[in-house]
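User: structure tokens for Dihydroorotate dehydrogenase, please.
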Amino acid sequence: MNMKVNIAGVEWKNPVTVASGTFGSGAEFSEYVDLNKLGAVTTKGVANIPWAGNPTPRVAETYGGMMNAVGLQNPGIDLFCERDIPFLKAYDTKIIVNVCGKSAEDYCEVVERLADEDVDMLEINISCPNVKEGGIAFGQNPQAAEEITKAVKRYAKQPVIMKLSPNVTSIGEMAKAVEAGGADAVSLINTLTGMKIDINRKAFVLANKTGGVSGPAIHPIAVRMVYEAANAVKVPIIGMGGIASAEDAIEMILAGASAVSVGTANFHNPAVTMEVVDGIAEYMERQGFEQMKDMVGLVK
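Assistant: Done. Predicted tokens:
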């Protein structure tokens, strides 16, 4: 039985990675997770300069998940290259660097800086709902999404994964736009924009007013969007959104995802990624699948 997957020319040992921002850059989870067991580690978003993120409170629990408005707090590309890449290089896993920015120039600066670094893939976050300046502007307009993809591709030495926002009218149209811009793969979904009000304080729970909703509650929406995107484009899809078990991950793969990303579930079960890898293997054996690619998009 072969669990290997090929995403834009990069071979992962299995189809499981982690969602950016839920795993740091690996170090804080390395006590709980054997990083060698993951197909890839996707880092927290990194920008050209350090970002402080949004004011607190910026995390809240919601029914069936959570809401965050962290605002992509990160130490910036210099410290990231100095500290996080060498840490991850010690493990037998692919490294996907998530890149964030507030303008096309910001994104390109980070991508150009990473061209000489020993990392395997870049995930371009054009879909964060909590960053006022950039992110969502690129992530909701097909033309802007295509343009930012083209700009990044001019500087990128590694394959580029464009991370899509679910806060759009047509996810298929957005996937086609980034494919037209030269994206090597697409990842989806990022969080859905939500709001929570404390009825006793009569105030917003998050300082940012709105936040990104993630967790099991959004899983059926994510499966539908992965299916739509997979049937709209030819590039590989990395599916994410509320995956908390092997069953959730397999659902994404059958809908058309070549790989999956586990996010919010890491917070309440740090070992979840290893369970997902084992669960997919058991399912393949039980169902008689010889290779991962035989499962991808099987349900039409």
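User: Anything notable?

Assistant: The first strand starts at residue 5 and ends at 7.
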